[in-house]
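Regression test case RT-17, inverse folding.

Input:
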């Protein structure tokens, strides 16, 4: 069944559903004033998460789809960090009392591009303005090519316990084609620095579908990676969107894999990781059986947010930095993407929010359904609809996409409970899209219960 389905659905450019609705629905109707109101109304008894975006790298990786800027100098980074600190102060002054923090994530770009003392000062500032739970988790994304021992030591001192290393591929031919040379030795050193510093949970990010990548090269990358015994893997498919990311035009499209070949690479990676003892988590993550991610999945407590699969159950996410997205009960907010615009707004004492989305009750229901599908490959639609005060019939009976997927043998529906078949789990985004009201604006809304 898989090759036929991969050919039919594999080229569909569907969202990763790390949020719902997705960012194309954001509009200027939600602005800095909205954000200020939402911050003032935050329930202080509930924990929150923080995300800090560091949009700088020393060189451009041609596959990259992140909001990042290339700089060889430290001055732009220092100026940005100054504004980031001001934004932290603005946010903390806008809530009724210091928020209780459960999770912190540094993303990029390359967060560890800042000097060690700047990283330590930034984390100390967060502690000054927010109340950290004793079990709060701090995670940092890292480029193993540039991590130095001093930075690793500072991360450990600052309480960082999770690190995600961008490995992507160890194949030298692939690395040359994406302008990212990374040796096995550099990665071993980075892992060693982090573990000695007390950063005891290591994740490797891998990408399949890169130029010149093959099943064989994917398997070889896995073999080399397993020797370093990471706790988790996140395995993503390369998204080629040169119309949006101009540097991707430097990639030769003629050596990109077909949909069928991409599927073969993904499944080969999955098979080898499962054979090595890792549990398959959702669509694209893998974790050791004793890892908190695997435990959360087993207990039905796995979640999905902008960082992918997570144990983070916080409803509130505060985003700091240019392009950062935040989430509150009322909806989503996003900061100005351009560094100059972000800096101007923060320097004037305003929030950098330029767009967002106000969630409706139906949006929350659909988001809940999509998250459970993405996490569990199963969802009880009637139960969730009832919990949100809606009738479930319109979600199922007038859903043409869902009916088509059922007829294809991709999923089964019994008593309103949807279960994705094991061999079709790579199509989970296609199934989730059946509940995305905005992929087709003619989709009817479901009816709210009396």
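Golden output:
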């Amino acid at each position: 069944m898989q090759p036929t389905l991969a050919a039919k659905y594999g080229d569909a450019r569907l969202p990763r559903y790390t949020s719902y609705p997705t960012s194309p629905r954001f509009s200027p109707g939600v602005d800095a004033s909205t954000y200020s109101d939402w911050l003032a109304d935050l329930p202080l008894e509930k924990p929150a998460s923080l995300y800090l975006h560091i949009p700088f790298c020393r060189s451009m990786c041609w596959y990259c789809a992140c909001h990042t800027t290339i700089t060889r100098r430290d001055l732009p980074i220092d100026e940005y960090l100054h504004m980031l600190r001001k934004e932290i102060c603005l946010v903390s002054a806008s809530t009724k009392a210091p928020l209780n923090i459960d999770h912190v994530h540094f993303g990029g770009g390359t967060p560890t591009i800042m000097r060690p003392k700047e990283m330590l000062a930034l984390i100390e500032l967060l502690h000054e303005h927010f109340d950290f739970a004793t079990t709060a988790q701090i995670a940092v994304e890292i480029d193993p090519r540039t991590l130095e021992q001093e930075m690793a030591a500072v991360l450990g001192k600052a309480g960082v316990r999770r690190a995600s290393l961008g490995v992507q591929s160890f194949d030298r031919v692939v690395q040359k084609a994406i302008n990212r040379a990374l040796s096995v030795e550099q990665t071993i050193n980075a892992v060693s620095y982090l573990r000695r510093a007390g950063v005891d949970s290591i994740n490797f990010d891998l990408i399949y579908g890169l130029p010149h990548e093959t099943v064989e090269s994917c398997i070889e990358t896995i073999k080399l990676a397993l020797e370093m015994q990471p706790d988790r893997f996140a395995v993503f498919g390369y998204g080629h969107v040169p119309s949006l990311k101009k540097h991707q035009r430097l990639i030769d499209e003629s050596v990109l894999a077909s949909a069928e070949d991409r599927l073969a690479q993904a499944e080969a990676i999955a098979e080898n990781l499962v054979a090595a003892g890792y549990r398959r988590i959702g669509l694209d993550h893998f974790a050791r059986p004793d890892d908190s991610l695997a435990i959360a999945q087993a207990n039905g407590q796995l979640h999905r947010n902008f960082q992918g699969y997570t144990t983070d159950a916080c409803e509130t996410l505060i985003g700091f930095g240019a392009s950062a997205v935040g989430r509150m009960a009322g909806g989503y907010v996003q900061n100005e993407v351009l560094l100059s615009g972000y800096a101007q707004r923060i320097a004037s004492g305003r929030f950098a929010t330029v767009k967002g989305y106000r969630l409706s009750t139906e949006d929350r229901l659909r988001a809940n359904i999509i998250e459970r599908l993405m996490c569990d490959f199963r969802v009880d639609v009637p139960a969730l609809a009832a919990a949100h005060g809606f009738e479930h019939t319109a979600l199922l009976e007038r859903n043409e996409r869902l009916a088509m997927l059922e007829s294809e043998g991709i999923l089964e529906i019994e008593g309103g409970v949807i279960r994705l078949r094991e061999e079709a789990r790579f199509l989970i985004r296609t199934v989730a899209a059946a509940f995305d009201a905005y992929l087709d604006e003619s989709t009817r809304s479901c009816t709210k219960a009396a």
